[in-house]
Write a structure and sequence with these properties.
The chain is α+β, with helices and mostly antiparallel strands. The chain has helices at 56-92, 151-171, 176-204; strands at residues 15-18, 25-28, 38-40, 47-49, 123-126, 133-136. The strands form two sheets. A four-stranded antiparallel beta sheet has the order 1-2-6-5, with no helix packed on it. A hairpin with a 6-residue loop joins strand 1 (15-18) and strand 2. The protein binds zinc ion (ZN) (2 copies). One zinc ion (ZN) binds next to loops.
């Protein structure tokens, strides 16, 4: 018996995935990216078939649907068949010396479906290498389809946001408090972007000496 079950996506069309090695959660939009069934964990780099990346909620949901289908399409029809043959036996022995009486008590079993909702994560990214749309905790991670680190897209995006904030200062000239808050946001955003970039690069490309590593910035 084959049962086809499609997993529901979230409101943006993403479906949750859970790495079988580090158990971290992320989401992908199927239909974007590479035509592959292979998935790379964006956090630890584990590589395996997409079938290994079901979340616990998805497994429970699939199990409940399968159980419901088996009950409705296999168990109950078989039980009704058995019940009919006992009734026939009862009819056949009605005026005989030995009579068989059959009483069945069975109401259809209610199998509750285990619905779930995909979790909300922090960053939605479109891979600039393969086009996969995916969503992760944190800001830097590898693309689940092509495995490329998303540093350049996220870094550029974050710096762009900081730049836009700085440009806002030219528009708001008479509100010093607001100007100060925007400037503070722009600077702390820029600094944390550099910090996260450094950490992501170091964990992806561990190096013993930092002598040759130079990050140049011009704002
Ligand atoms: Zn992992
Ligand atoms: Zn990619």
């Amino acid at each position: 018996m084959n049962i086809k079950i499609s997993l529901p996506s979230d409101e943006k069309g993403f479906i949750g995935r859970e790495c079988p090695k580090c158990y971290e959660y992320f989401k992908v939009k199927f239909g974007t990216g590479l035509p592959t069934s292979i998935c790379h964990c964006p956090y630890c780099g584990y590589t395996g078939d997409h079938n290994e990346f079901f979340t616990k909620d998805q497994i429970e949901y699939v199990k409940s649907i399968a159980l419901k289908e088996i009950m409705e399409k296999v168990v109950e029809p078989q039980f009704r068949k058995l019940e009919r043959s006992f009734k026939e036996l009862e009819r056949a022995t009605r005026r005989r010396f030995i009579q068989i009486k059959v009483k069945t008590k069975c109401s259809p079993m209610k199998i509750p479906l285990k619905y779930y909702q995909e979790k909300e994560v922090e960053t939605y990214v479109k891979c600039d290498n393969c086009g996969l749309e995916f969503a992760i905790y944190g800001i830097f991670a590898n693309c689940p389809d092509c495995g490329k680190l998303n540093t350049s897209i996220i870094f550029k995006k974050s710096i762009e946001v900081a730049r836009k904030r700085i440009h806002l200062l030219d528009v708001i000239k008479d509100d010093d408090e607001l100007r100060e808050a925007i400037l503070e946001d722009a600077l702390s955003g820029g600094v944390s972007t550099f910090d996260a970039l450094g950490k992501a690069l170091q964990s992806r490309y561990p190096i013993s000496s930092h002598k040759n590593l130079k990050i140049c910035s011009r704002t």
